[in-house]
Design a protein that fits this description.
Structural class: alpha/beta
Helix content: 25-40%
Mean pLDDT: 91
Number of domains: 1
CATH class: Alpha Beta
Largest sheet: 8 strands, parallel, barrel
CATH architecture: Alpha-Beta Barrel
Radius of gyration: 22 Å
Number of helices: 14
Length: 385
């Protein structure tokens, strides 16, 4: 797939044309564009949204975008495929790849001057039937061969076009799950096949991704991984083990799927700092803040205010750690949020179904505007990889 850019030649302009341009400039100053999240962010921090390309972008016409596409293209400077790069969508049969949704996202991003975070290469969930069914019978070498082919094919296709990859997603289960905090060896068909040394396989997945695209920044990623807890302690140990073995691990991502039914973990910044001290990038990769609603499906004013506070809490933890390279919301409008389909909660995003901006949106915008006047970087260029 080629993303060629049209080169426009310079032509002489008449005095009338110059005057018209000058008048247009005055008009633009009199009626400036509204600020956007991506436009107000520090230059060294990407502000992104997840999007399902197969559902939302296949019909994209740069000259005639719909309202959703216009907002997606203007508010954010980073996109994450919500589903289009997961195995079930991308690799539905052993010898079949379907890149249509993923390609649509890549093409939309290029048309709108955005970058893309890849998501995800190794996960226990949303795998196609052929992987789930065959996984239990694979030898470790068979599992490695399938996984290496997938990583090389997918990462190689988009080499040089994806700035960060969630290489391994949700590897460690929570402490309240049966068996406590540990690798999801039984649930993940690849780790199960290589259960004698699953960490070696994880390290090799990072190596295969790095070989396919040496420029991409490669992440571990999980939920309930915002603050310092038993789960992130396990990730901290895993990161140290992978780094000691020479694996090209570059980052740690906290998803940021929060609920107002629970408190906010104030140790989020400290957690990011300890991973940054290992030399890793950090990121908020899938932020939303859901809540139980009343009988009419509405939140209270207190919930709306607290939602804005929680979103800002995650953003502040990111802004205060220069190694934090991206802050991504998991969809920006309630109509496309995954939350109501999974939880008995809702109102989780920063805009309503009608694209009305919530207080959470304006709180994020204000914090981004205040963080670094003039979009100056938080650290000198090149200080972090």
């Amino acid at each position: 797939m080629s993303h060629s850019r049209t080169k426009i030649g310079v032509a002489a302009v008449s005095a009338a044309s110059v005057a018209a341009v000058a008048l247009a400039g005055v008009a633009a100053q009199a009626d400036p564009k509204e600020p956007t999240l991506g436009g107000e962010a520090p230059i060294d921090l990407k502000i992104g949204s997840a999007v399902w390309g197969q559902n939302e972008l296949l019909d994209y016409d740069p000259d005639d975008p719909n309202e959703f596409q216009s907002i997606l293209g203007s508010e954010f400077n980073s996109l994450t495929p919500e589903n289009d790069m997961k195995w079930s969508e991308l690799h539905p049969e052993p010898d079949v790849y379907d890149f249509s949704g993923a390609d649509a996202i890549m093409e939309f991003a290029e048309a709108n001057g955005q970058e893309v975070r890849g998501h995800t290469l190794l996960w226990h969930s949303q795998n196609p039937d052929w992987v789930n069914e065959a996984g239990g019978a694979w030898t470790c070498q068979e599992a490695r061969d399938v996984l290496e082919d997938h990583v090389a094919t997918v990462v190689g296709r988009y080499a040089g076009e994806i700035y960060e990859w969630d290489v391994a997603n949700e590897l460690i289960q929570d402490d309240w799950d049966e068996g406590g905090v540990k690798l999801r060896t039984e649930a993940n068909p690849f780790l199960k096949a290589c259960s004698e040394d699953p960490v070696a396989l994880i390290g090799d997945v990072f190596r295969w991704a790095h070989e396919a695209d040496p420029e991409a920044v490669l992440f571990l990623n999980d939920y309930n991984a915002e603050g310092i807890n038993a789960k992130t302690d396990a990730y901290y140990d895993l990161a140290q083990e992978l780094l000691a073995d020479g694996a090209p691990l570059h980052g740690f991502g906290a998803q940021g799927h929060l609920s107002l039914m629970y408190g906010f973990d104030d140790s989020m910044q400290a957690n990011f700092e300890r991973f940054a001290d290992l030399g890793l990038k950090v990121a908020v990769t899938e932020a939303d803040v859901r809540m139980p609603l009343d009988e009419n499906g509405d939140p209270t004013e207190e919930q709306i205010a607290l939602q804005a506070e929680r979103y800002d809490g995650m953003l502040q933890a990111c802004l205060n750690v220069p190694a934090c390279t991206s802050f991504t919301v998991w969809g920006f409008d309630d109509a496309r949020s995954w939350v109501p389909g999974v939880f008995d909660e809702g109102y989780a995003t920063i805009m309503t179904e009608e694209f009305e901006k919530k207080p959470a949106y304006f709180t994020l915008l204000e914090s981004l505007t205040d963080a670094t006047p003039g979009r100056s970087p938080r650290t000198p260029p090149g200080l972090n990889k």
